[in-house]
Amino acid sequence: MPKNIKEILHNQFARTTKALSNPVRLQIIDLLSQGEKSVEAIAKNLNLGIKNASAQLKELKSAELIGSRKDGKFVFYFINDEEVIDL
Q1: Alpha-carbon distances of 54 from 7, 24, 86, rounded to whole Å
Q2: Which of 14, 49, 55, 62 places its Cα 20 to 30 Å from the Cα of 8?
Q3: pLDDT of 2 strictly over 60
């Protein structure tokens, strides 16, 4: 059964606010506002383990705040829309 538009908007708002409620995720958004970065570069820059950085990136991607692309064995992340930076 399709969801109504109000329910879809509420669900997206909940995902977005959950993603933004973590200070590490806010630091990642700040870092990505400077340009695309690999998981390894993000982890190193923020003194995080790779697993922790990946988990935080997964939350941000789930909320559709960031996107990713794969280049060989490396995954690079970027801000999906300039409005994310403004937010």
Answers
A1: 29, 12, 24
A2: 55
A3: no
